[in-house]
Write a sequence for this structure.
């Protein structure tokens, strides 16, 4: 009786149906095998900024990274921001569906685990402006960071870095506008005290935001900076 009751509570708290089609899913991921197999993987992509590329190019680095290298070392974004990833991200970000964030976080973690990258000393979520945080109630980048911090056993710091001004959505701006839009948007309250940081966001829409944050950290003495995001827009 007690066992059945616990089983019922567990299945309620951890649904085992696929978040995309409703079929039976693995408990670890909440996706069924066919939906997982059909996910839009971000390959080929720029080896530096993870920009989706139509073809694998010699050297593997996009034109933008060649002419203006970003302030971070590399960006890991295993999925492309297109259906059904856009559905997962929008639900996670704007509709309070934190369970969808768990799926994105697990997919990102799986990619990180497969890459065998140097482990950072600290995970820092891309901060939201306090006004936007009040409206949304949570920072989706922090929710992903919590999962990654737990899985990878890397310390999480969501207090040292702040977004000090709101910025219009990057997607609506050209490249020059995007860089200007985020300039001076972040501030460090205190030194991070480490040499290697991973910045985490749900989606990298333009490299300008994470590049600005990474540049600020470099000025504060951080030597190695990775960017981890579930998805990357073209
Ligand atoms: Zn499915
Ligand atoms: Zn690039």
């Amino acid at each position: 009786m007690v066992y059945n009751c616990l089983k019922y509570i567990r299945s309620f708290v951890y649904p085992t149906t696929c978040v995309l089609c409703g079929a039976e899913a693995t408990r670890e991921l909440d996706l069924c095998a066919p939906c997982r197999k059909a996910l839009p993987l971000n390959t080929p992509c720029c080896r530096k900024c993870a920009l989706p590329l139509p073809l694998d190019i010699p050297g593997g680095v996009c034109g933008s990274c060649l002419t203006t290298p970003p302030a971070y070392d590399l960006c890991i974004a295993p999925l492309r921001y297109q259906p059904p990833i856009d559905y997962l991200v929008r639900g996670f970000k704007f509709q309070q569906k934190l369970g969808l964030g768990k799926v994105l976080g697990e997919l990102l973690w799986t990619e990180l685990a497969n890459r065998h990258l140097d482990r950072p000393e600290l995970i820092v979520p891309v901060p939201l402006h306090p006004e936007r945080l009040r409206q949304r109630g949570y920072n989706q980048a922090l929710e992903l960071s919590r999962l990654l911090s737990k899985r990878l056993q890397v310390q999480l710091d969501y207090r040292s870095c702040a977004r000090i001004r709101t910025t219009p959505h990057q997607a609506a701006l050209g490249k020059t506008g995007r860089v200007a839009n985020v300039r001076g948007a972040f501030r460090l309250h205190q030194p991070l005290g480490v040499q290697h940081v991973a910045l985490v966001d749900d989606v990298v829409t333009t490299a300008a935001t994470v590049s600005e944050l990474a540049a600020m950290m470099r000025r504060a003495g951080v030597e190695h900076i990775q960017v981890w995001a579930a998805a990357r827009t073209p």
In short: Residues 46, 48-49, 51, 61-62, 64-65 surround zinc ion (ligand 2) (CB under 6 Å). The chain has a mean pLDDT of 89. The chain has two domains: 1-38, 41-232. Strands lie at 74-76, 79-80, 122-125, 155-156, 161-163, 186-188, 196-204, 224-232.
